[in-house]
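Figure 3 (text version): structure tokens given as input.
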């Protein structure tokens, strides 16, 4: 694991101001990527903070983004039907996709219709390798939350999946949080992103944030510490409550 770079931590007085700043950054990054390369690629996160950001994008920023050139992927997905309340895809569809002119073929969801989750992971890895045929996936943006235990996507503390070096997508069968079966990007896929945005809000996340950013270096115990892109930037979007234990 490479030596950690100094984190870019942006602290906001409340979650509303965090959400607005993160949505503004999303729009700016999308426009920059489209101007430079003709497309914008993002891996979405689940959770309440991303939901609010997506709702802002679908309303106040709707006219500021060329949605036809945006490609949407996911960092992880619960192995449930796409219309299940636990589905990260459903959350993104209801909060964002249903309200903006996104092309259906630009939504690259983690499918959960296969009988075997392993087949779903292999299928999604093929999706990524077909989209980026000559290299590792190079997302313009990956969004991540921070679990109370320091997990990211569906990479949990002390999981052997943290050691994965070859696969881009893998199956989690024993998630400590329900549902137990999930599909997740691995660290090689995450750490090749151009930008990674962490969203951390609420007093209940304060200890996990402090341990991740200022605790002992032990990325097996705190998987978020392993997010160290070789040629990219990590930005932490944090509200005042979550930052309350930082020195």
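Below: residues designed for each position.
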């Amino acid at each position: 694991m490479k030596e950690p770079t100094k984190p870019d931590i942006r602290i906001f007085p409340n979650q509303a101001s965090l959400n607005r700043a993160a949505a503004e950054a999303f729009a700016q990054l999308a426009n920059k990527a489209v101007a430079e390369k003709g497309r914008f690629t993002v891996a979405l996160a689940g959770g309440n903070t991303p939901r609010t950001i997506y709702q802002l994008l679908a309303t106040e920023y709707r006219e500021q983004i060329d949605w036809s050139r945006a490609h949407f992927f996911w960092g992880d997905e619960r192995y449930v039907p796409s219309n299940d309340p636990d589905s990260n895809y459903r959350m993104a569809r209801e909060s964002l996709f249903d309200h903006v002119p996104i092309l259906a073929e630009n939504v690259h969801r983690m499918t959960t219709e296969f009988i075997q989750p392993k087949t779903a992971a292999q299928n999604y890895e093929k999706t990524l390798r077909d989209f980026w045929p000559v290299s590792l996936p190079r997302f313009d943006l990956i969004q991540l939350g921070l679990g109370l235990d320091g997990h990211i996507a569906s990479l949990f503390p002390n999981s052997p999946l943290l050691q994965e070096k070859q696969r881009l997508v893998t199956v989690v069968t024993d998630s400590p949080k329900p549902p137990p079966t999930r599909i997740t990007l691995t660290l090689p896929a995450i750490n090749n992103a151009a930008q990674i945005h962490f969203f951390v809000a609420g007093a209940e996340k304060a200890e996990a944030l402090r341990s991740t950013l200022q605790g002992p270096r032990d990325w097996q115990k705190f998987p978020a510490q392993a997010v160290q892109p070789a040629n990219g930037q990590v930005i932490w979007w944090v509200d005042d409550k979550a930052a309350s234990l930082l020195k």
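The chain has a mean pLDDT of 95.
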